[in-house]
Write a structure and sequence with these properties.
- This protein is mainly α.
- It has one domain.
- Helix content is about 40%, strand content about 0%.
- It has four helices and no strands.
- The termini are far apart.
- Pfam families: GD_AH_C (PF20629).
Length: about 70
């Protein structure tokens, strides 16, 4: 049987923060909240994100409709 790989596993080299532990029960919301806050602080202090390391520097904003 073919092993199923989830996005967080397939895109490990592109994802800075993986919150999938909530779905598997490995992590709690509180634990991941603390980890996310620490990650935000490190990035604010100058840590290079994976997107930056890969050379991506553009920003896209999704619009709900043309009037928003």
């Amino acid at each position: 049987m073919k092993e199923i790989k989830f996005t967080n596993e397939k895109m490990k080299g592109n994802i800075d923060f993986d919150a999938s532990g909530i779905l598997s029960g490995k992590d709690t919301v509180e634990q991941l909240g603390e980890k996310l806050l620490n990650e935000v602080i490190h990035v604010a202090e100058g840590k290079v994100t994976k997107a930056e390391a890969l050379g991506f520097n553009d920003t896209a904003i999704c619009r709900v409709c043309n009037y928003v």
